[in-house]
């Protein structure tokens, strides 16, 4: 079935629908301006997939903001976990944030022009533009207020949503995603490096042999050329970025398995090991993550490659430190020299890192006056979103309630989504 409708702001909505196992699925596309302020010409397409359970055609909508930045909404092959719970009382809209999935995906093939033009284009892929896209889609779907769920960076987007368009929201639920509303990138990375050091210690305490293995691999890469399936040489510093897995409870075992028996009898790295490492390290599936990751913390100040600078304050993460340590959710300028998916975007990334004019994303005065019910799960040991900053933001949002726990790492929604939604729904409606 194909149909078109026009929302209250005049945006044309195109929808294709199909059925799966007791659900109607509607695939919506709406065209949005590249620059919602109307200064820079151009448009992007915004895509969202809506799930409607039989018997819930008149239920309110809940829009889901995926973590990232630069990741599309999940493509569920089965309906379970948090999605199954949400569908018990909502029609669920899985939004591909602009630049991801089917929302005008951004990569080295589509990002054209000079580096300066590319950097100016990238300015329009932060949370403020994502929220404006969501409001355009909401209006095109009929204009009723909707609930919203944000995981990780999705929670950052919802904090911006509460700041710039709270009139579109009926309830807000956040998991592992309350940002510091007045923190700098340097503040964030000081906190995340400290927590990454803790997670390294926990990982190697569980798997002490992996410390020997990881150090051996790193030393080998400094003296011997090993090449990933994509053709580039694997460096020891890039190998260390596998530690992003330490931020997820499921990541411990996954990283341990990746480090199993990496060497051949002849002392070279096994092909299967290089395949696995290449799969984990390549930004080809989501280059936007690397391009805009630090800019999500930029508010009237340049980041100037904060993660690289702040790393120098932590001796344990030096390449020549006596004990091997993985890094975490950190993007470095040299990755744009080493990853083939990023090399063509290198100059634009440098310009974006030097941009001191990126506007604020949060309005403390609006957040302090909001009447939208807000409930957030805050994880004490979160490696990516610092606990102290999340707690401060929860206090800054009028009426926000938190479920504070050390039961989960950053992937709590994926691991135990049904329970988390039960807790957050009850908190928001108490």
Automatic annotation (TrEMBL):
Alphabetical list of InterPro entries matching this protein: AB_hydrolase_1 (IPR000073), AB_hydrolase_fold (IPR029058), Peptidase_S33 (IPR002410), Serine_prot/Carboxylest_S33 (IPR051601)
GO BP field: proteolysis
Molecular function (Gene Ontology), one example: aminopeptidase activity
Family annotation (Gene3D superfamilies): alpha/beta hydrolase
Stretches assigned to the AB hydrolase-1 domain: 60-278
Highest taxon, organism lineage: Bacteria
Keywords: Hydrolase
Family membership noted in the UniProt record: Belongs to the peptidase S33 family.
PANTHER family referenced in this protein's UniProt entry, alphabetically: 2-SUCCINYL-6-HYDROXY-2,4-CYCLOHEXADIENE-1-CARBOXYLATE SYNTHASE, PROLYL AMINOPEPTIDASE
Protein name: Alpha/beta hydrolase family protein
């Amino acid at each position: 079935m194909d149909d078109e409708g026009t929302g209250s702001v005049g945006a044309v909505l195109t929808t294709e629908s199909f059925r799966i196992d007791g659900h109607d699925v509607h695939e919506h596309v709406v065209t949005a301006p590249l620059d919602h302020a109307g200064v820079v010409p151009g448009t992007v397409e915004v895509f969202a997939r809506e799930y409607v359970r039989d018997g819930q055609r008149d239920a309110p909508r809940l829009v889901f903001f995926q973590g990232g930045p630069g990741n599309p909404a999940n493509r569920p092959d089965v309906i379970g976990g948090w999605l199954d719970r949400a569908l018990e009382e909502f029609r669920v809209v899985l939004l591909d944030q602009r630049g991801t999935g089917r929302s005008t995906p951004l990569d080295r093939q589509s990002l054209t022009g000079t580096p300066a033009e590319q950097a100016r284009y990238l300015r329009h892929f932060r949370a403020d533009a994502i929220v404006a896209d969501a409001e355009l889609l909401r209006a095109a779907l009929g204009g009723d207020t909707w609930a919203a769920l944000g995981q990780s960076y999705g929670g950052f987007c919802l904090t911006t949503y509460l700041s710039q368009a709270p009139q579109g929201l009926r309830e807000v639920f956040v998991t592992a995603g309350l940002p510091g509303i007045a923190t700098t990138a340097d503040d964030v990375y000081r906190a995340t490096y400290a927590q990454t050091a803790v997670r390294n210690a926990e990982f190697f305490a569980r798997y002490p042999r992996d410390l020997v293995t990881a150090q051996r691999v790193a030393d080998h890469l400094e003296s011997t050329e090993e090449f990933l399936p994509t053709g580039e040489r694997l460096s020891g510093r890039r190998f260390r970025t596998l530690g992003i897995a330490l931020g997820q409870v499921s990541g411990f075992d996954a990283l341990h398995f990746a480090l199993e028996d990496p060497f051949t009898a002849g002392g070279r790295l096994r092909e299967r090991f290089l395949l696995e490492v290449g799969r984990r390290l390549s930004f080809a599936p989501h280059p936007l993550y690397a391009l805009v990751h630090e800019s999500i913390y930029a508010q009237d100040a340049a980041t100037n490659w904060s993660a690289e600078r702040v790393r120098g304050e932590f001796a344990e993460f030096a390449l020549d430190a006596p004990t091997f340590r993985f890094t975490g959710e950190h993007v470095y300028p040299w990755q744009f020299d080493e990853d083939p998916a990023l090399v063509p975007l290198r100059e634009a990334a440098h310009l974006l890192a030097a941009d001191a004019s990126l506007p604020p994303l949060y309005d403390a005065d609006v957040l302090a006056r909001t009447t939208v019910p807000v409930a957030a799960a805050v994880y004490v040991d979160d490696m990516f979103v610092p606990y102290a900053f999340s707690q401060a933001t929860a206090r800054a949002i009028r009426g926000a309630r938190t479920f504070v726990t050390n039961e989960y790492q950053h992937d709590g929604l994926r691991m135990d989504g049904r329970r988390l939604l039960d807790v957050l729904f009850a908190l928001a409606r108490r």
